[in-house]
Amino acid sequence: MSTHYSVTGRTAILRIDNPPVNGLGHATRKGIAQGLRRALDSTDVDAIVLTGREGSFSAGADISEFGTARTTAAPSLGDVIAALEDAGKPVVAAIDGTCLGGGLELALGAHYRVATSSSRIGLPEVHLGLVPGAGGTQRLPRVVGADVAADMISGGAPRTARELEDLPGQRLFDRLVDGDVIAAAMELAVEVAAVRPLPRVRDLSVGRDDTAAARATHERLRRRSRGFVAPAEALALVEKAGTTPFEEGLAEERKTFLELMNGEQSAALRHAFFAERAARKVPDVRPKTPARTVDKVAVIGAGTMGGGIAMTFLGAGILVTIVESSREALDRGLDAMRRNYQRQVERGKLTADGLEQRMALLTPTLDYADLSDSDLVIEAAFEDMDVKRSVFTRLDEVAKPGAILASNTSTLDIDAIAAVTGRPGDVLGMHFFSPANVMKLLEIVRGAKTSDDVLVTAMAVGQRIGKTGVVAGVCDGFIGNRMLARYRDAATALLHAGATPAAIDSAAEHFGFAMGPFRMADLAGNDIGWAIRKRRYAQDPGTPREEISDALCEMGRFGQKTGAGWYDYAPGGREAIPSPVVEELLASFHAEHGTKLRTFEADEIVQRLVFALVDEGARILDEGIALRASDIDVVYIAGYGFPRYRGGPMFYADTMGAAHVLSGLRRFHGDDGWEPSPLLMRLAAEGGTFN
Ligand code: T1G
Questions:
Q1: Which CATH number fits the domain that encloses residue 328?
Q2: How close is the Cα of 364 to the center of ligand 1, in Å?
Q3: Distances from the Cα of 60 to the Cα of 122, 123, 372, 585, angstroms
């Protein structure tokens, strides 16, 4: 039963009860409609309170129903909302916790609304590639003004009930409480039982219809997510609310919603939504395996990564001991952390008190013994196996029994690191991405001997610090960096084949990547890849040379850090300016090889880059390094700037078809000896999909 009906005094209480988030699936919609009908037909009932469970009014439509007949099966959400609005008795919505998407649209159909001040109120549909589909774009502007509604709907960010109630002239809430919201709603229901006509949001006119601010916000959004259509559609509908009759606006919203729901971008974003949640599940670990307690964390190394990792835990209110090998390195790290926090204070993202609270949780030290009571130790020392081995040898000596020992290594062998300790079951990788206090992705690298409860604990800790955790097996580069290497190879091959860095970057960025490969290399520093290549050339002289990249680095053109790389940069500037030096470098390369600059279609550039990701992703799946294709999608969206509204490389491959990907890869590789992975061959032959 997903909706409970009861009567107290002369007020009916309709309580939505559809765990885990009170999704408004077909059965729940029917339950609300039936309960409303019952209350309206009853001579013992004068008013109705509509509510959810504690902490969750409703998170909106049941996304898992989209694409099935249940989404629009009668009664649709719009029908239920209209029934509330046209009810002959007052309906009071009692809101606590999440009131999102269709949940807020449902509440907007009520005649009155009471909420707890901390309730999270929002229309996040754009994050699913949608616009609100049950009146939100037409009703919300009528109660909070078009400017705030436009910002909330095209940006998709929730606000607290307190923030919205503080808006001058708001008509969203009739009462705000910090206690029992149902009791407050019952009280109001009695007060308004005889009020006629009943107030309907649809009868209000839109106040403060200035959407200029939202349009500016949207412009920033548009630049950041090229090609992503939902925010602009949402903004247009909100503006329509102020200029057209309600029914017309509602019809326009419905049309837009259905178009988007049936489109590729929403399918991709719904895939990404569920993929992030699926990644939390590890099939071969017994469900409900208890996690170990983590109240104190130690971080080894206060450099860029160590400092960022420490900040991530401090931001979650967790005690951190940070260990360095010298006083100046420790002070340098602490200064960097404080400067980072100070910037957040200047940007209004952190209060001065918040800064001090975080720093108060931090214990800097040079003495490993100070981490002997830590529950989790994360090593973020120099990326060198000898250094890692020596650190883990020390950790094995000083860390308490049951402490989890994690390495932040981005490529090194977790099993080899675990082997220097007497507790390999307590060792695993926790690979953060720089800047660690910002980037969402956390690769949780499971060693051959990592125990299940250690893995479960790392997953739980990852969620607790707001990271998107994905389990990876042990290999060079785990999931993301291994695929990144192939992506960079494809970009280099394009360069050697005659494309320019600007053409490659432009195609990638129009596809939706946050940054093309060469602008990204200039940002990260070309010297990092150069050092890895030189190590590989020394280890294996037969390693194919990346002549252009090597020549660029031999000129000291390491990117933004040296004011020049694949592009030129004005002093202190970040704008990538095509460089005559690089043009000359390309010209001499082609002259030497008897090749020449040539134009590539943007589609081909994108396919060369993305299919390389897909090819390596298929191998990663074949080898069991990733548990599922959607995990690979999560990694590449959360950690590498793959456009979320394309669903990730493996989802994108599914939309293109495995056979198309295989024939493209064959064409791009020509006779360079490339062989497809068995999985890609199989899917291409069977017409199967990765996800
Ligand atoms: N539909 C179906 N399942 C959902 C769901 C939803 N709306 N929201 C969450 N789940 C599942 C989720 O997959 C997970 O499942 C479990 O619930 C717990 O979620 C007509 C069209 C509410 C803030 O976009 O933002 O209304 O993995 O791990 O961290 O205009 O869930 O356990 O099997 O995220 O506490 C608009 C989406 C829908 C809200 C809770 N609403 N959900 O976060 O739990 S479209 C949304 C969230 C719509 C109308 C339109 C979050 C949360 P499992 P969780 P959480």
A1: 3.40.50.720
A2: 40
A3: 10, 9, 47, 56
Which of 24, 26, 54, 63 for a ligand 1 pocket mutation test, highest count of atoms within 8 Å of Cβ?
A: 63
Distance CA 533, CA 520 (A): 18
Q: What is the pLDDT of residue 53?
A: 85
Determine contact, residues 480/488, Cβ cutoff 8 Å.
Answer: no
Residue 592 annotated to the active site: no
pLDDT in tens, 236-274: 999 899 889 999 999 999 999 999 999 999 999 999 999
Residue 490 shares a structural domain with residue 356: no
Tell whether 468 and 488 lie within a shared domain. no
Q: What is the CATH number of the domain that holds 665?
A: 1.10.1040.50
Are residues 471 and 494 both part of a single domain? no
Nearest to residue 22, comparing CAs of 50, 42, 48? 50
Is there an atom of ligand 1 within 6 Å of 52 CB? no
Whether 461 and 511 share a structural domain: no
Please identify which of the residues 85, 125, 443, 616 carries the catalytic annotation.
125
- The reply to whether ligand 1 has any atom less than 6 angstroms from the CB of 25 is no
Instruction: Say yes or no: 515 and 469 in one domain.
Output: no
Specify the pTM: 0.94
Average pLDDT of the segment spanning 399-427? 96
Catalytic residue flag (residue 105): yes
Residue 326 has what pLDDT? 95
What pLDDT, in 10s, does the model give residues 588-597?
Answer: 999 999 999 9
How far apart, in whole angstroms, are the C-alpha atoms of residue 445 and residue 466? Answer: 18
Residue 288 lies in a domain: no
Residue 84 belongs to a domain:
yes
Q: Which of 54, 65, 105, 509 is catalytic?
A: 105
Ligand 1 atom closest to the Cα of residue 56 is 22
Mean pLDDT (whole number) for 43-69 = 93
Enumerate helices (H) and strands (E) in the chain, giving the number of each.
28, 20
Residue 568 lies in a domain: yes
Per-state percent for the chain, helix, strand, coil, to nearest 5:
50, 15, 35
Amino acid at 453: D
Q: Whose CA is nearest to atom 47 of ligand 1?
A: 59
How many domains does the structure of the chain reveal? Answer: 3
Residues 233 and 251 in one domain: yes
Domain boundary pick from 209, 237, 262: 262
3-state secondary structure of 176: strand
For 27, the domain range is 3-262
Q: Whose alpha carbon is nearest atom 9 of ligand 1?
A: 21
User: Residues 469, 533: one domain?
Assistant: no
Asked whether residue 402 falls in the same domain as residue 507, the answer is no
